[in-house]
Amino acid sequence: MLNFDWASDIPQETAKMIFFGLYLVIGAFVMLLPNEYIYEGVPKEERFWYNNLKIWSAVVLGILATVYYLF
Amino acid sequence: MLAGIDYFIVIAYIVGMLLLGLYFKKFVNSSEDYFLGGKSLPFWAIGMSIVVSDIGALDFVGVSGQAYRYGVSVGNFDWVGSVPAMLLAAFIFIPYFWKGGMYTIPEYLGRRYNKSVRTIASATWILFFALDLGVLFWASAVLLNVLMGWPIWISILSTAGVVGLYTYFGGITAVIMTDVVQMIIMFIGGFALVFLGLHAVGGWDNMVEKIATMGPEYQSHFDIIQPSDTSSPFPWTGILFGLTFVMANAYMIGNQSIVQRCLTAKNEWHAKASMIFGSALKMFIPILVLFPGLMAVVVHPDLADGDQALPMMIKSILPPGLVGLMFAAFFAGLMSSVDSLLNSTATLFTKDIYEPFIKKGASDKHYLKVGQITTLALLVFGVATSPISSDFPGIYVAIQTFMSYFQGPLFAILLLGIFWKRTTQWGGLSALVIGIAFAVFLNVFKEQFFHIEDPFLYISWWSFLVAFIINITVSLLTKKHSEERLKGLVFSSKIVMKTKTV
C-alpha cells in the first residue's frame, strides 16, 4: 500500500489526464473567485485587464498544460 | 579554467552585489524595515526573488545530473511541483498572512494553535537553516577554489563577508533587490548555455532522435510522467501525492524564506501577484537546469557521474566571457540562498524565540538590533561549521531530506488550521510531533517499506496523512477554540466575498 501498488495498472496516458484534471480544477477555482477579491489592493480607477490576476493565472496554467501535453 | 575576461566578470559581479546591497542600508530604520522591507516592495521584485532563492548552485549541478540519468521527469519539481501550489498560496494563504501583519509562519501557528507549536516549528526551521548555511559556505568556497584558485578559507570568508555585509545592513530589502540582479544573471548565463548547447547537438529534434537511439534505458527520457512502478525516484504517484499535494504546498506556503518575501509586498494585490509572477518565471527553470543535462547525454554520453554533466557542458561549449557569466550565475544561486537563510533565520529567532521568551515589550530599535546581531552570529556559525561538509560529503542531501520530512506534518497542521475551525491546539501539537516522528521512522526503515530508490516523495505523503488524521482525531477529543480566538485565523467564504471584513 505504501508504494501505491494499486496504481500500477493505471496507464501513463490516464495518469497524465489526472494532472490535466488538476490544472482544470485549480483554474476553475481561480475563475470562481470574486473580482473584488482578485483586485484587492488596487484602487477602483486603476483596475485594468492587465492587472486581473485571473488572466495571469490562466496564462500560467495554460503554459503548464502545454508543457505536459508536449512531453 | 577561467580566462582574464571571466575573472573580470566574476569580480565585477561580486563587488557590484556588495555595493548594491549596501545601498539599501538607508531604507532600514525599524524592525519592520529590516524583516519586511517596510511592506513596500513591488510584485516583480518579490517574484524574481522567490525564484532565485529556490534554486541554488547545488541544484544547478544536481538537477542537470538527474536529467542526465532520468530525463525530463525531473522537470516535475519546477512545473507541477511549483505552479499549482504557488497559485493556491497566492489566493488562499498569502492574503491571510499579509493581512494579519505576520512576520513568520510559526507566528500564525502560534496564534492558531499554541506557543509550543510555534516554538517547535520555528526551532526546527532555525536548526535546518543554520546547518544549511555552513554547507552553502563550503560549496561556494569549493567553487571559488576550483575556478579562481582561491584558498578555501579565503573563499569562505569573502563569500561570508560580501553576503553578510549587505544582509546585516540592508535586511530583506537588500536581499530581495540583489536577488533581482542575481536572477537576471542566472537567466542570461543559463540561456546562453542552452542556446549554444542546442547548437552543439544539432538542434532539439536531432537531440531527441539521438537520445532515443542510445538504448532501452533512454526510452523514457522524454516522458514527463513515469509509471508508478518505475525504479527512478519520480513515479507519477509520488509526483502527484508526495510532491504536488504535499511537498510543493508545504514549501510554498510553509517555508519562511519564501513566504516572508510575499509579506514585504506593498499591498495585498502585490502579495498575490508576486506568487503568480514567480510561478510564471519558475516554469523557465527546468529549461536552464534540465536541458544542459539532456544535451550532455549526446555530447558526453559516457559520464560515470551524472553530476559532471553541467560542468562538462560549460567546459566544452561556452567561450571565454560566457564561462565567467555562468560562474557568476552559479555564485548568484549560492549568494541568494545564503542571504535568504540569514535573513529568515534572524527573523524566526527574533520574532518567535527572542521576543516571546527572552525580552518581551522592548523597543522596536532593540528588536532591529537583535535581528542584526543574530545575522552576524549566524554568519560566524555558518563559517565555523562549514568544514563539516568536507568531512561528511552527504550532509547537504541529509539536511534536505530531513527538511522534507518536516514539511508533510507542517502542511497538515497549516491546512487544517486555516480550513477547519474545529482543529484545536492539542490536535496541532500532537500532529506535528507524531507526524515528524513517523516520517523519521519511515526513513529509518525505508528499505523494508518502499521499492523505489529514494522514497522521499512517498514519505512526505504518508507523514502528511498521519499528521492530518492525528490532528482531526485529537481535535475531536479536545475542547474546541472559541469564535473570538479564531477571528481572522480561519478561512471563510465571507472573507473572499467581502474582503474588507478581515
From TrEMBL, chain A:
It comes from Euzebyella marina. The chain crosses the membrane at residues 15-33, 53-70. This is Uncharacterized protein. The lineage of its organism: Bacteria, Pseudomonadati, Bacteroidota, Flavobacteriia, Flavobacteriales. The keyword Transmembrane applies. Keywords: Membrane, Transmembrane, Transmembrane helix.
Automatic annotation (TrEMBL), chain B:
Keywords: Membrane, Transmembrane, Transmembrane helix. InterPro entries: Na/Glc_symporter_sf, Na/solute_symporter. It is a multi-pass membrane protein. It comes from the Bacteria. The chain crosses the membrane at residues 6-24, 44-67, 79-98, 119-144, 150-169, 181-201, 234-254, 275-297, 317-335, 367-389, 395-419, 426-445, 457-477. Pfam families: SSF (PF00474). Signal peptide: none annotated. The keyword Nucleotide-binding does not apply. Its main location: membrane. GO terms for molecular function: D-glucose:sodium symporter activity. The keyword Transferase does not apply. GO terms for cellular component: plasma membrane. It is found in: Membrane. Belongs to the sodium:solute symporter (SSF) (TC 2.A.21) family. This is Sodium transporter. It comes from Euzebyella marina.
